[in-house]
Amino acid sequence: MLSQKVSFRKAVPVWEKDKETVMNHSIVLRSVIGKDLDAVLRLAAHSRYQIFVNGKFFAAGPARAAHGFFRVSEYNLKAKLTDNENVVAVIVAGYNVNSFYLTDQPPFVCMEIEKDGEILNATGSDAEFEALTYKARMRNVMRYSFQRPFTESYVFDAYYDAFMTRPEEKYENIELVKTDEKVFISRNVPYCRYNEIKAKKIVAKGIMIPTKNKKVYDDRSLTEIGDELKGYKKNEIEADTVNDLYAHVMQILEPETIDTEPVLLGSNCCAVYDMGINTTGYIRLSLTAEHDTQIYAVFNEKLPEEGYPDAGRDGCANVVKWALQGGRTYDIVSFEPYTFRYIQIISAYAPTLISNVSQYRECYDEALLVNKKQMPDEDLQKIYDAAVETFVQNSTDIFMDCPSRERAGWLCDSFFTSRVEKELTGKSIVENNYLENFILPEKFAHLPDGILPMCYPADHNDGCYIPNWAMWYVLELYEYLERSGDRALVDAAKEKVYKLYNFFRGYENADGLLEKLDSWVFVEWSEANSFVQDINYPSNMLYSMFLDAISDLYGDNELHEKAEKLRETIRTHSFDGEFFCDNAVYDDSGEAVRTDNRSETCQYYAFFTGTASKDAYPELYERLVNEFGSVRDEKDNYPEIHRSNAFIGNYLRLQILFEDGLYEKVVDDIRKFFLPMAECTGTLWENMTDSASCNHGFASHVICWLNKIF
Fold it and tell me: 342, 404, 485, 525: which has the fewest C-beta neighbours closer than 10 Å?
């Protein structure tokens, strides 16, 4: 199914005059409406928006779409219209930078409020919303990460929220002008519920002390700003929040657990809160500032050894800053969603009473998870619950790799997460949007003709792509047809699929093997990724599966024959009599010579893609089953064979064991691989260590095995 076009009754897209190209510019629009009305807010915007009713957070968006397309959401406001006069306010940020998370397109907002068929307000009409520049949010700030747009720094005076809370307040409105016409399409995906969860406990209190031995945050997102990575350069930013904090050390004074609320933080004092689980959403703070001060919220997915969050962990600026005028109580909410288990609140300059530290969770609606199961013991239940958490936090509108560093729709990751959606919900609604987004645009800027982006919706100004990941799109499309029966979307993808196939044909050598693939050839995060040239056998194994998928999707029998021939060629060239070798390189005479590079992951690719089978390679299969996987951690078997990481080697292993009915070994590996993750963060990780994201969407695939075993 392809998304339907949507029309607004009266609204047209608008933006603040002369601000369409400004980076990180925000506006706020409002309408004052009556009590208990059956009012619907119809809304599309770019880059991001938040809705407030009477100053209280209500919802956020949008649901993401491809370049040139924008999804329309509808929100029923009636339950929130409890006052005689209610202020419905929408903050919209236009980032105007490239990222892995949001497309780099001009900002706009198009919205209308409808009651009983009557349009009360509509942008670009004679019933225009009141509108102001949202000056409280600082514009010239650093990016959050290489993959995401800007951090948040605010300057709030005592009247910062009057426009959003006081109907009687009058303002001089900014001029909104019509933008280019937009193609609006249906939202399709479920709405998030935005349940509020409060911090469970304080795990430490301390004081912030200046230091001469300061760390320096010099991530590429701060130092490499230019045409390929847009943003404000270091000499342009007004809030270098990470380095501000790195100029200090935190001396932890009370590491024991204490009550959470209320807490009076003295000048330059902090408290570290534990949410109880690694969770994603909007930071909410309620506080009373006695005098002018600055509040920092610093957050991490796990607690470093130092006992407080690291503001620059994992190449992310994990900090939000508010400069506040003293003498009032504030109820503040971050504009962007963040992922954390631990959050440190710092009050600089003046004592501040912290009365609430919480989060509005942004997750897939858990009421729609109709096929959750109980596990037979406590440890497996912890892993299962962690997998569910990982799924709901990474499946809000597309399938994301992680809800933190990137929030990006990566291929290959989505192959695994899409299985979980069907398993837990019985439907493939998010997957439909996700796959459709790759189909909608005519072409992808900055990339060679025919290749698909490695993650999307996104902009890859540096021209980087992963050829392997584009193959996974077709593998997922094949499974999607089986899951959904949606022939229309598969047929709509046909032209792009064959353009992709033609792209790869340009890399085939005389043996039919792909060689010298360009850009970022990626097998997995392990030593296996050091062996990707000149001829990478895991990539070619995947290519054979890719050809079979096209053959089955579109009845192209020649490609099935080609895939079989390719697998036979790989067997001849790659297998050394004991293991499949990862690659071959050309010598000075121009001959491709097989190396002795051998990885555990290469073996799993061989069996997963049908290049090998247990009947054809019984000794290798038995060796993999019984001497690799989690038992290697105990026995250090085959040290010369490079170990697999979580993604995708260990997941391919588990899938191979599962398909062969070796359930005891699957469960044993699951316990050993994932229980430490579940106990530490309540989510499942990108790697086998906590060195990167501790909440990665693909990892929820554990559910697909456990649901069927138990």
Answer: 485
Burial of 209 (0-12, 13-18, 19+ CB in 10 A): exposed
Residue from 654, 670, 641 nearest 607 by CA: 654
**pLDDT beyond 70 at 205:** yes
Q: Structural domain of residue 278, as residue ranges? A: 196-361
| CB of 491 closer than 8 Å to CB of 430 | no
- Give residue 253's pLDDT: 85
Q: Per-residue pLDDT for 646 more than 90?
A: yes
Contact 153, 239 (CB under 8 A): yes
Q: What share of the chain has pLDDT > 90, as a percent?
A: 95
Backbone angles phi, psi at 370, to 5 degrees: -90, -5
Per-residue pLDDT averaged across 190-207, rounded?
A: 96
- Give the three-state DSSP class for 372: coil
Span 313-333, mean pLDDT? 97
In-domain check, residue 371? no
Kindly report the average pLDDT of the chain as a whole number: 96
124 & 244 share domain: no
* 118 within a domain of the structure (yes/no): yes
Task: Note if the bond before 304 is cis, omega within 30 degrees.
Answer: no
Q: Report pLDDT digits (tens) over 86-104.
A: 999 999 999 999 999 999 9
Please report the pLDDT score of residue 634 as a whole number: 67
Where among 332, 361, 390 does a domain terminate?
361
In a domain, 416, yes or no: no
Last residue of a domain, one of 337, 361, 385: 361
Q: What is the DSSP string of 473-499?
A: HHHHHHHHHHHH--HHHHHHTHHHHHH
Query: CA–CA separation, 431 vs 434, rounded Å?
Result: 5
- Region at 162 (left for phi over 0; alpha for psi -120 to 50; beta for the rest): alpha
78, part of any domain: yes
CA dihedral 481→482→486→491, nearest 10 degrees, is 30
343 beta partners: 273, 299
